[in-house]
Amino acid sequence: MAATPSLLCLLTLLVGFLFADSKFIAYDTSQGIVPGKINVHLVPHTHDDVGWLKTVDQYYVGSNNSIQGACVQNVLDSLVPALLADKNRKFIYVEQAFFQRWWRDQSDSVQSIVKQLVTSGQLEFINGGMCMHDEAATHYIDMIDQTTLGHRFIKREFDVTPRIGWQIDPFGHSAVQAYMLGAEVGFDSLFFGRIDYQDRAKRKIEKSLEFVWRGSKSLSSSAQIFSGAFPENYEPPSGFYFEVNDDSPVVQDDITLFDYNVQDRVNDFVAAAVAQANITRTNHIMWTMGTDFKYQYAHTWFRQMDKLIHYVNKDGRVNALYSTPSIYTDAKYATNESWPIKTDDFFPYADRTNAYWTGYFTSRPALKNYVRAMSGYYLAARQLEYFKGRTGSGPNTDSLADALAIAQHHDAVSGTEKQHVANDYAKRLAIGYTEAEQVVATSLAHLVESASYTGSVDPTTKFQQCPLLNISYCPASEVNLSQGKQLVVVVYNSLGWKRDDVIRIPVINEDVAVHDSEGREIESQLLPLDDAHAGLRNYYAKAYLGQTPTKTPNYWLAFTVSVPPLGFSTYTISAAKGAGAGCTRSSVQTFQSKEESTIEVGQGNVKLTFSTNQGKLTNYVNRRSLVEELVEQSYSFYNGYNGSDDKAPLIPQNAGAYIFRPNGTFLIKPGEKASLTVVRGPVIDEVHQRINSWIYQVTRIHKEKDHVEVEFIVGPLPTDDGIGKEVVTQLATTMATNKTFYTDSNGRDFIKRIRDYRTDWDLKVHQPIAGNYYPINLGIYMQDNSTEFSVLVDRSVGGSSTVDGQIELMLHRRLLLDDSRGVAEALNETVCIDNVCSGLRIQGKFYFRIDPLGEGAKWRRTFGQEIYSPLLLAFSEQDGDNRKNSHVTTFSGVGSSYSLPDNVALITLQELDDGKVLLRLAHLYEIGEDRDLSVMTNVELKQLFPRKKIGKLTEMNLSANQERTEMEKKRLNWKVEEGSSSEAKVSRGGPVDPTKLVVELAPMEIRTFLIEFNQSFHRYLFDA
Amino acid sequence: MAATPSLLCLLTLLVGFLFADSKFIAYDTSQGIVPGKINVHLVPHTHDDVGWLKTVDQYYVGSNNSIQGACVQNVLDSLVPALLADKNRKFIYVEQAFFQRWWRDQSDSVQSIVKQLVTSGQLEFINGGMCMHDEAATHYIDMIDQTTLGHRFIKREFDVTPRIGWQIDPFGHSAVQAYMLGAEVGFDSLFFGRIDYQDRAKRKIEKSLEFVWRGSKSLSSSAQIFSGAFPENYEPPSGFYFEVNDDSPVVQDDITLFDYNVQDRVNDFVAAAVAQANITRTNHIMWTMGTDFKYQYAHTWFRQMDKLIHYVNKDGRVNALYSTPSIYTDAKYATNESWPIKTDDFFPYADRTNAYWTGYFTSRPALKNYVRAMSGYYLAARQLEYFKGRTGSGPNTDSLADALAIAQHHDAVSGTEKQHVANDYAKRLAIGYTEAEQVVATSLAHLVESASYTGSVDPTTKFQQCPLLNISYCPASEVNLSQGKQLVVVVYNSLGWKRDDVIRIPVINEDVAVHDSEGREIESQLLPLDDAHAGLRNYYAKAYLGQTPTKTPNYWLAFTVSVPPLGFSTYTISAAKGAGAGCTRSSVQTFQSKEESTIEVGQGNVKLTFSTNQGKLTNYVNRRSLVEELVEQSYSFYNGYNGSDDKAPLIPQNAGAYIFRPNGTFLIKPGEKASLTVVRGPVIDEVHQRINSWIYQVTRIHKEKDHVEVEFIVGPLPTDDGIGKEVVTQLATTMATNKTFYTDSNGRDFIKRIRDYRTDWDLKVHQPIAGNYYPINLGIYMQDNSTEFSVLVDRSVGGSSTVDGQIELMLHRRLLLDDSRGVAEALNETVCIDNVCSGLRIQGKFYFRIDPLGEGAKWRRTFGQEIYSPLLLAFSEQDGDNRKNSHVTTFSGVGSSYSLPDNVALITLQELDDGKVLLRLAHLYEIGEDRDLSVMTNVELKQLFPRKKIGKLTEMNLSANQERTEMEKKRLNWKVEEGSSSEAKVSRGGPVDPTKLVVELAPMEIRTFLIEFNQSFHRYLFDA
């Protein structure tokens, strides 16, 4: 039975009797804004972490309460009658991962009631993503995806679009959050709780906690957002907490009982309001009435707020009202006040002296890598799902989407959750991956067996994939090819450009040959699997899969592949036929550290010089660009501070999951037994170094690439000395960088960083290292007047340039103490076999390159996309040779001679569940970043969809829950303070001509479209 | 707007949708009892202490949550929708003090809904008194009054009568509770949680935790009740706690989420059920689903119980159902099982080795005295309110009734609450007293100015009373009578017998004379106010009233008064006229301790001998009864144990508010400077002794009385040595008492106690003193084969006979440690002036007398009533002499030559708010207690109401919420085990003939009547 509006009315009336109605006192909660008074906007809210101390499901159902008393189901269950009881009461709800769990369990009648509450504005969705994502360790594509997932759900179920950004808890705030996930989503404002304590202090004095934020240099005022940092945190003023069992004084207004305290409470309220008004522009202040997992019995809060509004307004000194951030924002806007401008971002964040929340930039590097790998995979999988056609019933990418969305939470990818919760995120990703893997395999099978050839609808090809390739484990490729079997490798490229790249797979056989899609043998190289990698493989395969692999492949087979845009090529690996044919075995040379010699490696433009007795890289030269630098690479570790020397009034502060607080830097000098092993071949040169017993490194140069790839295996970090450690690598040059370096914002814009300096206030430096750390998702670079030195990363890490000419990345952390920010667990990741545990080893890569000044962006942007979207490998076996006749061996989703411009990436191509196709195109360059590419560019949609006819193209806001034109129409135009720097006209792509279907993209612009194709959707149909 | 039944129906339906309805799972909670299976009766309940760590009002509104998170308003607010959501859900509510606070704040529509819930049985009132009263420190009259207050409210508002006794938390259980507040109230069963750990262990083995309890030797099977002690406590089995944030595993039955655990939880449930079934007769077991202040969000419990019932019954191994103690009781009864018989009581209670909860028998002796004094005053005030006629608007006795009711709570008069809560009880009593004092004053004024004389409706006499007479503070009597003023003392006797007694009032003037109602001068005696009393007066008057009295009276004036039953006499005190007239000044003689002499005091039958060098009483003789005993009285103290020597596996156990655990006994020997002061006069002889610096004692013999009164001032107990102390007095004789003594049950039946012995099990003695302590409300006595030695008390105390021939009373306790039973505060009572605090002093009395064997009961019963109902003194001043002509000087409410039989007390005479009159008559003797008086006796109601015509007389159950005949009709007849001792026929008074109006009373019978008078109710009308 669905509740009709009239029934709802009756219900509201009756539940009203049950809850809001006192026999003797009818509380007047109807007050709106009163001009001329301090208006205290009471914003009832709950902050529900999508996993932290408990898993998301545990938080939802309220299990595992011994860790933390929290049950989101209670919050939402109790909220509905509390709102029904008084139509003036309001509530905001944020985290859609929880809301969706609740929603799907509600009856039609409850759903109908809740829809009315949303329509009436009593219940407002704020932020509206699946989670309140982290802003440091997240990639912008993930931020967009998780926000879109939440926003489209809200749009579909409630036909509303959230208006407000609500990032109240993340530990620092990014430029991308403000301009992209704020303004470009169409939010009218953005509120947050955490801001550097020095910054906050100054802003209180200047009344500049609220401002207009222009996060993007390129999009500037076209993507600005009104923003507010809270005066303290996201909790109520002290003494106004009203959860069950909270100890704030309740308003005792029953004169028949003792302890009547109405005037006391009114006085408390007025005092808190006036104090806040004194640091706030305009006479509107917001009280965030709630905190983590509150409103488990919503009635307790509303009862007290009803009374406070009633009595405070009777008192009359200030005006109290039920409000939401939307109402508050509109009230602020209506004042016509001018606001200061803020550019860049709010990193790093310190909540007090010596407490820089910069450790979490690196915390849980394995999880961070897994999230990033799954993000790239999800992008590719959606493309392949689109090619195949989405199915409602069979496997799809939705569970991976969900898992990834949840993993963006500010206690997920951030690494600040408890270990069991980190395991839960990983489990969800693994489950989501497993389903997406089937989508990919099926789609590729459809594509290779396209109807043109086989007429088959259910393809027979079974593709295997190798998610554990990072630990050199790939059963699909570790097959014996000596019996005439052939290993088919389909290599899928999710980028919009043709791509030449080297792939590496473990193999058993020594004498194998590689043939391309046309059947031509291509050059390939066999590299020995070193002990470090073999050890990693066998230990982690046992730990993760439960058994040690029966045999260890002896080699990596490496070869260069060439893959069309949004398409695949096919390579076949088989036993080599005849002498001279087949792969080339690498030459291997080992140098002991006592040998004093210099080794040069690199067969292409880039040459590296290593000193054998120093055991390290010493020089970098690019013979094409003629760049040469003395580059020394080294490893160090910081000891984690244990807080023991903090004397009062300082609060003891350990290093921990959140906080980086080094207690001494220790250079790791290669030991006496350190050796350099040089592996050379036609495809790759590698220098293997065992730095010490727990660091192994491979420096790798691909013949065709002008950059250096460094692969490291770090761990287990030793803690026998009872001290936690944080391992960094430094790349030192002689460049005069003048304290300046650049780090990306969520993999997108680069922001200029100056050591020991903040744009917004005079920094007091207490932590010269931790206080200069920034999150790195794409890369970090520095410049002098002739060159730029760029480092790109494969996952989120923390990094800095703590010394001129040097770049430092933190690769791994293992700490033995908690840092008192709530997680209550030391960040001490271990891996166990048969209950014997050892510290986690991290395998990862970073890449560096030196360019002439002004020329580094091309590599950072293009190769950055390649890192994010590695080639996707699918394996199958075949007997016999005639593949080309029976299968499609090469495919591209775009027009046959088309590829996206060099400055554009296809960041979303996805068939939605309503059959529409979601497309996002991203200009990859900022204004002024590259001479040639920081320009307006075009994408031809007809070429992007060569086999389809676009019936309707609708440009949407970034989260695809409203038309872009509607969003623009509603946008509030905030006044900024006079004297704010004027700005050049912002460039934006123009409207898309529906016949030409060419999309213009200005620098840093991302455009989002919903496409409806004219004809019925043809699956995997393409011209032969 | 009142909800009509059909509206209610709709509401139920709709709220049902809101709460109980899951989209995918409809939980079947409709299961009833299933024969042949273990039936697990889930009894949802909350245990809401009417004050403990917080005051009753704080618990109700949820303030002071920093002490304890508890808010009863939440419980009741959240309960209503939770019950509406599923008609199978049930709940019991117990404490009417809370329920009434909630009820009066509810709208008509909520009240209407709740009435439906009560009618349908979803909400059942259990126990139903204002509080769950204590059973050790309470007087049976208070127990009856507070139960009546709750029961009549429930009857009036809901037309239901509670069926079940529910004393789940009190610390030991009394015989009076079982037979009187259980069976005589009409309860079908009585459940409780606390029972001696040794007793419980044995009962588990014997499956005798449930039994038929015959608490009264006299009334035996006519007042038996089916009773059950819970197997552990009154909480759910471990792992089944479902309050918000409780950490029991919730039933996670959503297969789309992780951690699905239905089978695990079902297995846990079945295991707990089987374990309990194994120690329980029949296949019905009760789970008390709740505990202290739970169900603040009732939904959280019901959601889990819904699921458990659903899945456990699907599993089928046991049967789970929503139940109540009523349903459980009926199910037990239906089995036709035979039950063991229990007699006597469950004192003392130990919850583990060395943890005897016998300290609280004495804890907070001042509060205990205040409660007792107010109880007697309330009885008298109601009589006077009845004479005057109850008014709805003016002052009445209701607030004193409320305050007294709340003070009976098992953490109130018990002394086990926090200090601020004890203060709250005292404040409530003081407020209630102040209003009742007005009722008394006005009523007496009406009576003395009766219309017959003055025609006045608003009397002009302003009577003052002296509630601080116990600290010798009485401004009304401390007036200067030398100016011709006369002090009029109206002396009211609330007993049904004529009474001769000595009253004592402080006076300023030395030369005063006392005249009786007839104007005859009577003998009076002036006693000097000693320093101990003067110090007590001045210190406590300053502490309580804020200022030291300007002058200190020098004397007590004592004289014998004679007052008719339910009536008053008038005495006039004025300046003595002429030599020889007026009061007699006492002779005072002081003996130093070095003097070796013997003093005899007593001018009547009783003579006491004191040894001056021993400084103590040595001999007692009654020259009339010819009893003589060597009696030595002394004081000792126990050191409070500090738990420090408790080695594992013992849990450290301090002495504290609950627990008496002595660590050594220390005799207090009068010091060298001790002296005996003997005060003699025509009315009283006194022996004053300063025992030490903190004990002062007066031994007093009234000329006309055959007992000894001992007044003590004890305190501040010294704690400079860091050790808490418990002070006792011992009365030692040479009687051969064979380990046996007798203590009363709540001031009513006497129960035989045998040292180091329990009737029900083989006692393991760990605490030879604390384990032999019993609560004393009326008195304690012992016998040998010729005499009996009786001690009566003025308040609840703990006492024992730890040595043959000796009786010991604990008078005061001051402890420095908490005893880990929740109060979390040391019982260290202090009194402060200007922030300088010192330990509380206790002023009190006990009385003793020695009789020939078999003759002690008369004194214990008659004088016991006089202690409970002291003469009520009202003072006014007058000029001139002609009082007798203008005022009524003597009055009796009963027929002119009538008085109640010696074995009957009028324990209630009260006009109810509906105009009916509530009458309770109590036979004061047990069977066999007294040769003459343990017999059936009669009360003539026509004589009791000489000026009224009884129109309708309805005999009620004890709590006056149902007719006695109805109650008898419904009574369940439990089968008892064969071999249970057979019993003689129980004697009970027969039906009252409506014309004769004579009430028969059998030994120990209390009969309760509602009386409607035929004519309109005439106020203070009586024959001249």
Q: How do you describe this structure in short?
A:
Chains A, B: Belongs to the glycosyl hydrolase 38 family. Two copies of one chain form a homodimer. The first copy, chain A, has 1024 residues and is an alpha+beta fold.
What this model shows, in words?
The structure is a homodimer of 1024-residue chains. Chain A is α+β, with helices and mostly antiparallel strands and 1024 residues long. The first copy, chain A, folds into two domains: 41-360, 7-stranded beta/alpha barrel, CATH 3.20.110.10; 469-868, Distorted Sandwich (Beta-galactosidase, Chain A, domain 5), CATH 2.70.98. In chain A, the strands form twelve sheets. In chain A, strands 20-27-28-29-30-41-36-35-32-33 form a ten-stranded antiparallel sheet. In chain A, a hairpin with a 5-residue loop joins β32 and β33. In chain A, α6 (140-158) packs across α13. Chain A is globular and about 100 Å long. The first copy, chain A, starts with a helix and ends in an 11-residue tail after the last strand. In chain A, 59% of the residues are buried. The model of chain A is unreliable at 1-10, 16-21 and 1017-1024 (pLDDT under 50). Chains A and B meet through α1, α2, α3 and α5 of A and α1, α2, α3 and α5 of B. Chains A, B: Residues 1-22 form the signal peptide. Chains A, B: InterPro entries: Gal_mutarotase_sf_dom (IPR011013), GH38_C (IPR041147), Glyco_hydro/deAcase_b/a-brl (IPR011330), Glyco_hydro_38_C (IPR011682), Glyco_hydro_38_cen (IPR015341), Glyco_hydro_38_cen_sf (IPR037094), Glyco_hydro_38_N (IPR000602), Glyco_hydro_38_N_sf (IPR027291). Chains A, B: This is Alpha-mannosidase. Chains A, B: It is an enzyme of class 3 (hydrolase).
